[in-house]
Amino acid sequence: xxxxNDPAHDISHLTRVWATAQTLLHDYPQADxxxxxxxxxxxxCVNLPKNHPQRxxxxxxxxxxxxxxxxxxxxxxxxxxxxxxxxxxxSFSAGIAPQTIEAQIVQDADRLDALGPVGIARxxxxxGQLNRPLAxxxxxxxxxxxxxxxxxxxxxxxxxxxxxxxxxxxxxxKRLGQERLAWILEFRAAFAQQWLGQPAL
Length: 201
Hints:
This protein is about 55% helix and about 0% strand. About 40% of the residues are buried. The protein has nine helices and no strands. It is mainly alpha-helical.
């Protein structure tokens, strides 16, 4: 799948991830910004749909493709392993622990884009692509049923997005993650209220 037809992983996503990474880099002057930038810009050069059977392999495929792109542009050969690792480790589904500060920054920056207002828009965009209803018709907050984000888009907040701040590798990432999650949880409560036709408080 090309990033051109996936609004959750388009060019704007790459730009936002790099912008966030630059914020995180302020706390880590020892990190190689060139490695971080290359990984941010190319981490989704192979992008498979959420329901693709090889989804967990996409970051490894992206790392391999990125190396070819960078070599063709004359990127420093000595830095290529660090870029490849940062790309491989960015993916939630790959389950690869980031071993370098550069990989930690790239992973945090990518996950932060799933939180806050843009994260909500991305969540519903992906849900629409997969033909998922916005929410359960009568129990949007899963008060009396199991959460199931494979069926209802709103459930993805509690199933995954709410867990992201704790998974951040950097102190700044954790702080930003908590701030953006607070906004999402307020949105979730307001959404459920309107969804059920309840009067505003």
